[in-house]
Amino acid sequence: MKSKQGLDMLERVRGICRPLPEVEEIVDGFGHNVMKVRGKTFVMMGENEGVPSLSFKSTKEEQFLLLQQEGYVKTPYIGHHGWVSVDKSSVPNWDELAVLIKEAYL
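^ thats the sequence. predicted structure below, dont judge the formating
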């Protein structure tokens, strides 16, 4: 993450994840900032041409419900595994995202 918007997003996610036990942050081979617990990824963040992205793991049922709402899209390539991304054209609802990230952690 290099843009101000991307760094702000990363700091918000770090703040949500910091109190959660055993969370580690790595940068993967694609340059994504990844949050993991016990080796399992539950949040991925990246940036393309200065536009940050945020994706998180969900159940298929939760994914179905989230995709009915404004602000969420199925994550390309891994959406069939339940991953959801914040729509880049929307303003993130951080209160809701905090709950969703904590659920992804569990």
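Residues 9 and 52 are 8 Å apart (CA to CA).
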